[in-house]
Specification:
It holds the Pfam family ABC_tran. There is one protein chain. The protein is of the alpha/beta class and 261 residues long. It has 2 domains: 165 residues, Rossmann fold (3-Layer(aba) Sandwich); 68 residues, no CATH class. It contains 10 helices and 10 strands. The strands form 2 sheets. A 6-stranded mixed β-sheet has the order 6-7-8-3-9-10, sandwiched between helices. A hairpin with a 2-residue loop joins β4 and β5. The protein is globular.
Length: 261
Amino acid sequence: MNDGSPANARKEPVLSATALRKAYGRVEALRGADFELFPGEILAVIGDNGAGKSSLIKCLSGASSPDSGEIYLDGKKVTFRSPQDAKDAGIETVYQTLAVAPALDIASNLYLGREIRKSGLLGSVLRHMDIARMRREAREHVNRLGIQTLQDITQPVETLSGGQRQAVAVARAAAFGSKVVILDEPTAALGVRESAQVAAIIKQLRDHGLPIVLISHDMPSVFELADRIHVQRLGRRAAVLSPQTHTMEDAVAIMTGARAA
């Protein structure tokens, strides 16, 4: 199912889910949730506390397994038993609690968990890292994404601002997320200026053709960035809205149940 727009009528979802259910004991977090992300779009996911946003994203990113329902990537049914499964399939997630190593430089953080070793015995036996290659390729990634806030790839992350640290995490996800990047509240702990910098990076990723799932409580940011808005309510998808045809008041009313979709 798509939202009926002419653009999406011609496309197949890059990531989709149908009838996802997930319970934690007696609590039903997902009650037959559907989801669709189309190529080259920013899809915002909004919902009140307890709406099932986190459970939905955990299922899509491999952090949790649904009790029932199906997930599709490029039209093929997939089963993610761990976040690594999702990463191997090309889905990268940036969580609100940034998994960066402050003492390491930007390049080392981009390759955290994916370190490149030197060729020959130095790499295979002595396990030496190819620092020069990682820095060169990290600079290429950052330049290709058009991220202007990260100038010195050798700078320790602990010396960066909150917005720059978020840029590092987003750049890492974009460098290895070949299919989808999921961003969980990327501007929650940032000031106005740094939020604007991160918003610019998100737009650049979309302009490079990378589909993005944006989970956010920041309605102005949602309406500035999103191509479509997935409204989650009571464990299900309540509606899919367009910022061009709906207002923030519309979204909040549907999200809280004050108005039907």
